[in-house]
Amino acid sequence: MISKGRKYEMKIKDGLEQEYAKHKNINQDTYGGRVVSYGEDWANLMEDRIANGEQLEDIADETSHEADTDDITGFMYSCAASSLAYYWEHGEQLRRWHNLENQIGTEGEEANEKGTVLNTAILNIGTKE
């Protein structure tokens, strides 16, 4: 976990504290555990900067890379983004940013309308016309 100089911790949405504790408990294997710890690291980094007046949309990309200390996969990133969208106090704002930041065409806008999270690990192969 990234903790150096951090003052704030990820704030779980009201009423979801027990569900989040269960989520962490069932994801203790190497892969799932890293998804959870990456998500927490990412959220913690953003919490610090949001508390200092910065906007999530301006810091989400940079902090996502800062939290990635071991080259997580694209699927791990998407799982963490989805988890944060659901559990984190700023999750809806992150979900909307994530979808627009990672869209090809208009699927991010469509995902925002539906309330879903894009999976960045999906490979789209197309042809030029």
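The record above closes out task 2.4. Task 2.5 opens with a second protein, given below.
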Amino acid sequence: MAKKTGDGGIVLSAFEEDLLTLIQRYVDGIYGLDILHSLNTANKKINRRLIGVGSLYPALKRMAKQGLLDDWWGNDTSPSGGARRRYYKITALGKKALQDTWLYRDILRSGLSPQAIPSPI
């Protein structure tokens, strides 16, 4: 679960980082089951544990409630005639949290102190 820091920043879990990384590629939003398919396709390629709908949808709902994602019901239905689709799109806050997480990962990889890394604009 994403947690707020004392300075107003957000610390993402690895799963949340994966979700935001994937969703940010889709500027018009992405359907929930397409997110699941993309994650599991990537996970299969490197022999990682597959994600189930029981993990995905609660995380997406929580992230939308935290303001990291926008979510809405689409007007279309699935090709098989099922229920309407719910779409997800990253928000400005979600982008900021993702960029902060990537900066943190860069600091860890480089071995530099946080003071040596220029702050993002």
